[in-house]
């Protein structure tokens, strides 16, 4: 009997059933039940009230701004994440450890602090505030500030997915391609990108989910201007504070639905990745040439 089988059969069936029941009960109580409550409250007044809440002009503006912010932040983080991961994983240079630490900075800094950073830099009393005011450029309390804050809190996701993957793969294939005469772009497009595609897709999914649901940093730099600088999470807060519970839950349910769609896409990507890995493992080994 293998070691893995002995480990799986160490605990008694009663213990295994108890641990499974505890895990499922915890998930049902703290994940499934609150999520179901959001949809129940959103639809409590009927489908007509639900659609009216989503079609309200301020809600449509919040939905549009959320999608625009994600559409800008995710591609920017995609470019940065691939460049940073390639630089860290493929090259040795002074300050490499410091750069890796900087990439992790948004994970350790509160999103509210991140928002305050942009206010201190781009606000009316900030370092660049007077110059921006002279040139009629609005960063804070406008869409650019929301995009910048979202980029800051989400940029580690793609890089952190790719760095360990590219370090594990090494650079042998890239070096072989360059020896054979491939250019840098050809090497990236035909060698590096196919090797990292699943990690890249996974990082983009996580980055997009965080971009759409970000609250703290966006709340500081948005100014809470209804119909202009409110994203969906901010709009939910405003509606709830105004005792418009059904409308707040309606918009929140749309955010929850986007999260569920993201989870489904993530699961599909993982399943496809595992399927491809199994298919690769089952390929017969190549026979040496006679």
3D architecture notes:
78% of the residues lie in helices and 0% in strands. The protein has 15 helices and no strands. The two termini are 40 Å apart.
Estimate percent helicity: over 70%
Mean pLDDT: 87
Outline the biggest β-sheet: none
Give the radius of gyration. 24 Å
- Determine the strand fraction and express it as a percent band: under 5%
| End-to-end CA span | 40 Å
Approximate shape: globular
Query: Which structural class do you get from the secondary structure elements?
Result: mainly alpha
Low-pLDDT windows of residues: 1-7
Task: Please specify the SSE layout and strand pairing.
Layout: H1 3-8, H2 13-42, H3 47-55, H4 57-90, H5 96-103, H6 105-108, H7 111-122, H8 129-134, H9 143-154, H10 156-169, H11 172-179, H12 184-213, H13 216-222, H14 232-241, H15 245-281
Supply the key terms.
single chain; 290 residues; mainly alpha; 0% strand; globular
Structure, briefly:
This protein is an all-alpha fold. The protein is built from 15 helices and no strands. Helix 7 (111-122) runs parallel beside helix 13.
